[in-house]
């Protein structure tokens, strides 16, 4: 095999963006390898139901949609490996190569597509890590059933927070939604449902200062941002939905990012480094949805293929 | 595996054990499940790997204070050696298993 690149394109991340990039790269006869640390689908795979991906009038489960996307890409020759990308090096030369280091080895390629997605943001308060899985949760459908007949707190004011809060009322006796502002950001349809739900209670202009308990969560210390006053609210669970953070930590310093770590690209998904493309939730953009991830994945693959063909001197001009 | 067989199969196991606490309604559990099955084959004979459906078996999760799934626990000599919650990558689970060997 020698020291040359083994692959035309390495795709980091196997959510909808990465899988679509893989589909297009494979159909473009590129030697493409997709690295995904878990199973394909990313955040979409753990989404109970996807109701806004066109072509599925009744909606489809996130897990099934993900499986179908993988099947489709693999049918056209995409290779996949269950490995976690941990480093990316640029090897200058003629041509320039990239080396991706994973938890199990390393791979070389002529181009890289970053589709690493995003993970849920933490509150960063005392008790949050300690009580993870013992009352602190980031997934209402996973952990809601453990809180039957109990009072739980939801933190956040966006679509996720409010929707998951409504879901939790199926199990909990009361859902207390804590938001740092005096109104919700969630879409009007969702807000209306939340306000009409007798089990929902709202605490405005407040933040969580600490999560406390013994074997599990027993109470949360809240602070009212207007008065500065802190108080304890007993509860047995804390569900956190305060946005996402991109999985781009190991790329800091290599690629241009915004101050939150989202990768900056142009319309063709090119990053600040020639030969590295980015798509999906890890990219700086307006709307983070399966449908936008897929569109960007296709564009990234097309642009990466054009780049690879130019490097190889076989571009169709 | 079930609540009824947990003690005999896991706590009294001669070799370390990895238990995947899961439920059918949990998305991230479906993500971790195949990884756990891969590890079961890879470590056959060295680590006992078992799954416990928390819906059908509420006693054992209660005993270990589990209120979030998927939870993976590595047991050695009847004690909890390592414990992690959420859809964690294969490398991280393997690192837990290697501590038990």
Please tell me about this protein's structure.
The complex is a heterodimer of chains A (317) and B (101). Chain A is of the alpha/beta class. Chain A contains seven helices and 17 strands. Chain A has two domains: 183 residues, FAD/NAD(P)-binding domain (3-Layer(bba) Sandwich), CATH 3.50.50.60; 105 residues, FAD/NAD(P)-binding domain. In chain A, helix 1 packs parallel to helix 3 and helix 1 runs parallel beside helix 7. The longest helix of chain A is centred in the C-terminal third of the chain and has 23 residues. Chain A is elongated, with a radius of gyration of 22 Å. The mean pLDDT of chain A is 94. By secondary structure, chain B is of the alpha+beta class. Chain B has a single domain, classed as 3-Layer(aba) Sandwich (Glutaredoxin). Chain B has four helices and four strands. The longest helix of chain B is centred in the middle third of the chain and has 16 residues. The mean pLDDT of chain B is 94. Classes of the chains: A alpha/beta (317), B alpha+beta (101).
Gyration radius of chain B, rounded: 12 Å
- Report how far apart the termini of chain A are: 30 Å
Strand share of the residues of chain A? 25-35%
Q: Calculate the mean pLDDT score of chain B and round it.
A: 94
Q: What is the makeup of the main sheet of chain A?
A: 7 strands, mixed
CATH class of chain B: Alpha Beta
Overall structural class of chain B, as computed from helix and strand content, comes to alpha+beta
CATH architecture of chain B: 3-Layer(aba) Sandwich
- Tally of helical segments of chain B: 4
